[in-house]
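[step 3/7] fold_predict: job queued, chain A
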Amino acid sequence: MTVRTRIAPSPTGDPHVGTAYIALFNYCFARQHGGEFILRVEDTDQLRSTPESEQMILDSLRWLGIDWDEGPDCGGESGPYRQSDRADIYQRYAQQLIEQGDAFYCFATPQELDEMRKEQQARGERPKYDGRGLLLSAEEVKSRLAAGDPYVVRMKIPEEGSFRFNDYLRGDVEIPWEQIDMQVLLKQDGLPTYFLANVVDDHLMGITHVFRGEEWLPSAPKLIKLYEYFGWEAPVLGHMPLLRNPDKSKLSKRKNPTSILYYQRMGYLPEALINYLGRMGWSMPDEREKFSLDEMIASFDMKRVSLGGPIFDPEKLDWLNGQWIRDDLNDDQFIEALKTWAFNDDYIRPLIPHLKGRVERFSQVAPLASFMFAGMAEVTEAQFDELKLERDEIRRVLQFVSWYLDELRVWDKDAIFAGLKALAKAMDVKMGGFMPPIFLSIAGTTSTFSIVDAMQMLGPDLSRARVRYALNLLGSASKKEAKRWDKEYRALER
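[step 4/7] structure written:
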C-alpha cells in the first residue's frame, strides 16, 4: 500500500499557520513512509473563496518548503483538485445515498430551523435537527421537488448507542450518537459540505491517512459513517492538538498574528518557521530544538506527537529564527536574504515616487521610509493623546477599522480608501479625525506619504497587525464594549 496523505485548505482568507502546521505533519508522515502528499482546494464556499487566496496559500506553503505530488497547479491522475470543479461527482454520490435510504431531502427554511432551535432551547434541550424531513411521504417529496422548492440533503444517523473508532493518536474514542446532528451533505446551491466532499474526494484520490485538527474530533462518527454507507474502507484518522496562544487559548489573530505572510513579511526565515512548527507537539529523538525539514522527515514518528496543546510563542520563534540567521547564513547569504526579504526592486520601486518629492538628500530617505522596513510601528500612547478624537473614540475607530480590514478581500489602495471613507461616514466621524489614528498605527507618525499607498505596499497581514497592535497599546475593548461595538459595527450602513 502506498501511503497517501493530503491537506485541503479553504481559500477564504490569509494562509494560516495552522494550515501549515497540519500540512507539515501530513507531509512528513507521507515522506517518511515513501508515500505521496496531495493538495486539494476546498472552495465550495463560493461567497468567500477567491483565486487570490488560493494562490497565497500555494505560495506560502512552497515558501516554507512544503511541496506536493498532486494538486490544482501541477495536476495528477485524481483531479480535478478544486472541489468547485467536482460538483457533478458529489451530486451523483448524494443521489446514491438518497436511493439507499441513508440520506434524505430537507425542505425546512432557515426561519423554520431557527424557530425549531429556539423551542428546543426553551425546553432546556441541546439544539439539534429534529428529523422533520424524514416525516415527509415519498409523494410529498416528489411534489415539492417538482415544484422547485429549495432543499438540502441530510444524512441519516443512528438514534441510539455510541460510535467507537480507533484514533491513530488518541486510541479508542467513543462518542454517543445523541450528540451527532443529521449533517447537511448537499447545500441549496448544489455544492457539498465538508463532510460529503471530503469523504468522496479522499476515497477517489486514494487517501490512506487523514491527520486533522482536534476540533474535528466530534464529527468523526458521521464522517466514518458515510464511508460505511458507501461501502468504502475509511482512511486511518488521527486528530492533532490545536495550536495555542501563550495563555493556553486557541491560537487566534486577535492575540497573535496567524498568517504565514505576516511572518514572511516580518523577516523570518522559512527554515526557522517550519522548524518551529515542527516543534509544535513533536520533538526530535535527541531533543534538539533546531533542525531542518529533511532532518525532521528522517526522524519522524507520528506516534510521538504530544496531545497537549502546543504553545505558539512568538518570543521563542524569534529566538529560533536568530539561531538560523547566525548559524546558517554567512555574510553573503545574509545580504541575499535581506534582498529577498525587502531590499529588492519589486518592493522598493513603488516607494520611489513617494520619496523623491519629499527629500533633498539621500540621508533623509531612511527616516522617512523606515516604517516600510519595520515590524510594528514605533508609536506611543502619548502620540494618540495629541489627536482630535478622545481616547475611547480612537479605540472605537481602530476596532472598527480592524474589523473592516479583516473583511477586505481586494487589497489595493482604491479599495482600502473607499472602504475607510465609507466607514468614517457611517460612523459619523470626519476624515480629519478618522485618518490620523490610522496614520499613527501604520507609520508611527502623521507626517508621511499616503497611508493607503503604504498599506497597499505593506500588504494586508502587516497592516492588520499594526492596527491591532495600536489598539492593544491603547487598551483593547472590554467584553462589554466588544459586544456593544460589534452590534454597532454590524448595524452600520456602508
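[step 5/7] annotate
The CA atoms of residues 427 and 492 lie 7 Å apart.
The two ends are 56 Å apart (CA to CA).
exit 0
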